[in-house]
Amino acid sequence: MYEGQAILPAAKNMKQFEQLLDSSYQYGVFLDTHIAQLKSIYRMAGSRNKKMFLHADLVHGLKNDEYAAEYLCQEIKPFGIISTRGNVIMKAKQKGVLAIQRIFMLDTIALEKSYALLEKTQPDYIEVLPGVVPHMIREVVERAGIPVFAGGLIRTVEDVENALAAGATAVTTSNAYLFNEYKR
């Protein structure tokens, strides 16, 4: 299970990944990578005792379906898988990998569809985007009863604090400034 790190640094390139490796953070997220890089990246992370979530929808060269999720769980063995796809989340859970259902709070209809999906998939965590709407984070936490990561458009320490105060377990961000500046 994930344990108490307020910021989940999200590496969107190798430079950010290298910064994460050199940081004191234990947990992080891979956002955008190529299938051919996965094994070496996870080997590097493991050698530095980093536990990395993988955004399965953003792996180039890999379709984001349950077969891809099965491959990732068996061959790459990420700490957790993030996806917008219910079948990917259910496969990750079946394989014993932490499952993070990513939802977009675009409007009421999208949010209601997300609640129905959450009932079906029962993920370990939810990642809500955008993460800068504290009253909606609070609603998702209360209604779903599943821990929430807040992500998207997080740009300031105040954004981080507002998301956490609204009930988010952690904030995912690719903003390198926040990796270094926010300490809790």
Automatic annotation (TrEMBL):
Regulates expression of the glpD operon. In the presence of glycerol 3-phosphate (G3P) causes antitermination of transcription of glpD at the inverted repeat of the leader region to enhance its transcription. Binds and stabilizes glpD leader mRNA. InterPro entries: Aldolase_TIM, GlpP. SUPFAM superfamilies: GlpP-like (SSF110391). The keyword Transcription applies. Coiled coil: none annotated. Pfam families: G3P_antiterm (PF04309). Keywords: Glycerol metabolism, RNA-binding, Transcription, Transcription regulation. One of its GO terms (molecular function) is transcription antitermination factor activity, RNA binding. This is Glycerol uptake operon antiterminator regulatory protein. GO terms for biological process: glycerol metabolic process; positive regulation of DNA-templated transcription.
